[in-house]
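Continuing the batch. This is chain 6 of the set; chains 1 through 5 are on the previous pages. Same settings as before, nothing changed between runs. Recording input and output for traceability.
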Amino acid sequence: MSSQALASTRGRLVESRTTTSNPLLEIGRGPFSQQSQQPLANRHEVLMRVLLAVGEYHDLGELLSHLTTELGGFLRFDAIGLSQFDEIADRVDLHLAKVAFSAELGTDDAKRSTTSAWIHEHHECLDTRFPSEAYRTPSSSTQGSCASSAVMSGEGIKTYTALPLIRRNRVLGLMELGRRREEPFTPDEVTFLTQVANQVSIAVENALVCSQIARLKEILVQEELCVADELCSEYGFEEIVGRSEALRRVLRQIETVAPTDSTVLICGETGTGKGLIARAIHERSTRRTKAFVKLHCAAIPTGLLESELFGHEKGAFTGAIAQRLGRFEVANNGTAFLDEVSEIPLELQPKLLRVLQDREFERLGSSRTLRTNARLIAATNRDLESLVHEHQFRSDLFYRLNVFPVHVPPLRERPEDIPLLVRHFVQHLGRRMNKSIETIPSKTMEALCRYRWPGNVRELENVIERAVILSSGSELQVSLREFQNLSSRGPNGGKHKTLKEAERAHILATLKETKWVLGGPRGAAASLAMNRSTLQFRMKKLGIVRGVKAFEV
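Output for chain 6:
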């Protein structure tokens, strides 16, 4: 820039600041350009439309396109830009457009600028918080120093004005307008554009707040996942998600019993993750390098269960065309996990007891005795002690299994783990389905936490999997109406909360009908189709004494 042009520019700035007490608040003091000379009422109309656009457009790129249309018919300019300064992220986002095409200028690289270059380029405007004006010509010294100046110079912009976007005494960015001709913006035009900038600053502030909230949410999610990871890594349980005291108590039990060879009985409702607990015990034992053999006893027909457990010889029965090794033989020096051990029939239980006591068994169809050093971990969702009193399970086998009992709490007893499990399943299933789900609505999370989950963690995983499948965007979509229907069918929707409470109420009602007579053909035991000793045991276990009323739920 020549010294004569620079002196002329400084003279105009001094004249505008001395003739107006505050140029930011004056409107209509000087003439607009010949093309855009409009009555004052028209300016107010434009300002009103800009204000409406600020409330309507949340994306700064869309707002810029709208500003290009509104201001382009009112005063002449060839390019317009919005700079958004994010102090927390330490970056400047740029949105640039050319009036002739109402399209964005520059490449993706031009939409970002280093904070230092941006501050250096606009230090006068940022320091004084007054509009700045200057002549520019394309040169190597200006191109590349800041993205906005580089792109504007590349488009042939020779003069421009920059207006600070100020909210709550903070400079949030700049609104810049440029012309290809060496025609400065008049003080009156700058004053009007200042009014526009005051409204645009609201949109910039909102955009900054939204981006910062999104960033904080992401940080919070990552922190919670890290907390969960730390809690798991504290014990080394990567697959078990949760931080409740009830779950921590189970993890401490696992750490205690895992190094031993003792038999473990895992008790808990269906879907609580008993298989994960068994796997965790094996992985932390001295047998972790050996086989972990699992058998779901309820899934095997009774006639084939003995063969599955102990193996069979060729020709032992119809269809036995070859020798087969049993699970205890395969698990030698490793771990055998029998899920739903309560489903083993009474006639087969003595053979299992023999394996536990003597470490011996025979294959089906063979008289040769084999030995095994397998460690047994059993799991059940039924009350084995009650089955013993009902003569449906051998007492000696129960005592052999119940060496170290571990009770896995149901999900309703550890509700603080539900948000962690939801995020874990969303992340895991999202990766598996190539979906990026970033947010979970608060109403959805509240509904998930209120539900009692009779199917426990397995039911929660299934609900989340269905929700991930149905979610088309970045937000998890769960049908709250469907969830309310699930809630009404769950434990809260019936008369009683749990099976235990329903059983207690049923026994009490029967006792009332029989006037508390237990034995005899017309007694409560006969009405309930159970032995008197079994009824007395159930009454003791449920805390039923004469005069106690049923639960009212």
